[in-house]
From TrEMBL:
One of its GO terms (biological process) is proteolysis. The keyword Transmembrane applies. Belongs to the peptidase S54 family. Gene3D superfamilies: Rhomboid-like. Pfam families: Rhomboid. The chain crosses the membrane at residues 12-32, 66-85, 97-117, 123-141, 148-170, 176-195, 207-226. GO terms for molecular function: peptidase activity. The lineage of its organism: Bacteria, Bacillati, Actinomycetota, Actinomycetes, Mycobacteriales. Residues 56-186 form the Peptidase S54 rhomboid domain. It is found in: Membrane. SUPFAM superfamilies: Rhomboid-like. This is Protease.
Length: 234
């Protein structure tokens, strides 16, 4: 029989995100009748293209984060999510972990709207996954553990983002920045804002959640505002 502690320690958010990504990819493959999922109508109505967002299709800022072009694309992202998500969800808790994930996802989409060419199709969970890398770096620094390993992983992945064709560096950087910022807000902000006499667990949690909500709103608003222009910053 499972116990409340076991339930809290089970990374159900990570498993749920993996399941959603896999199911959506399977639906795209079925629609496309090919493992080139980008051919599916579902994919084409959900991937991230600035021109479509400029026409008011703002849902793409979210849905693009759950679409993948190929088996290799989803496999790499699902494996990364499995490796990073389990430990992070245990450290942050289910709700805060999911909030960090979606903040990073929207942050990656906002960066695409700002910096990618207007006709580029972007999709994939990698922006959110880079956000988890940023979150892991913040937690390691807070724990005073050497960050060399995490930094090395981030740098290697960024090098791949720059050198391999068809990869959105903007989405990766946007996700990385927003994921790190969200985690830092949870870990560091309560101690900075609350006086010693008010620094209870309840108050610290409330400050952290307010900061997360603000970051989520900022990421979504930035994506919508930047996406409303067909030119972005290019």
């Amino acid at each position: 029989m499972s116990t409340p502690t076991a339930t809290r320690n089970t990374p159900i958010g990570t498993y749920a995100l993996i399941a959603v990504n896999v199911v959506i990819f399977a639906l795209c493959v079925i629609q496309a009748k090919s493992f080139d999922a980008g051919l599916a109508p579902l994919f084409q109505h959900g991937d991230l293209v600035r021109a479509d967002v400029a026409n008011g299709e703002y849902w793409r800022l979210l849905t693009a984060g759950f679409l993948h072009f190929t088996v290799m694309h989803i496999a790499l992202n699902v494996i990364s999510l499995y490796i990073l998500g389990r430990d992070l969800e245990t450290a942050l808790g289910h709700s805060r972990f999911l909030m960090v994930y979606f903040i990073a996802l929207f942050g990656g989409s906002a960066a695409v709207m700002l910096f990618e060419a207007g006709n580029v199709r972007s999709a994939g969970a990698s922006g959110a996954i880079y956000g988890l890398m940023g979150a892991m770096l913040v937690i390691v620094l807070k724990a005073r553990i050497s960050p060399t390993g995490v930094i090395t992983i981030i740098v290697i992945n960024l090098v791949f983002s720059v050198t391999m064709p068809g990869i959105s560096l903007a989405a990766h950087m946007g996700g990385l920045v927003f994921g790190a910022a969200a985690t830092a807000a949870v870990i560091y902000l309560p101690a900075r804002l609350l006086p010693d006499e008010s620094r209870t667990q309840h108050n610290a949690s409330r400050v952290g959640w307010i900061a997360l909500i603000v970051l989520l709103v900022v990421a979504i608003a930035l994506g919508i505002i930047a996406g409303s222009s067909r030119s972005g910053l290019l």
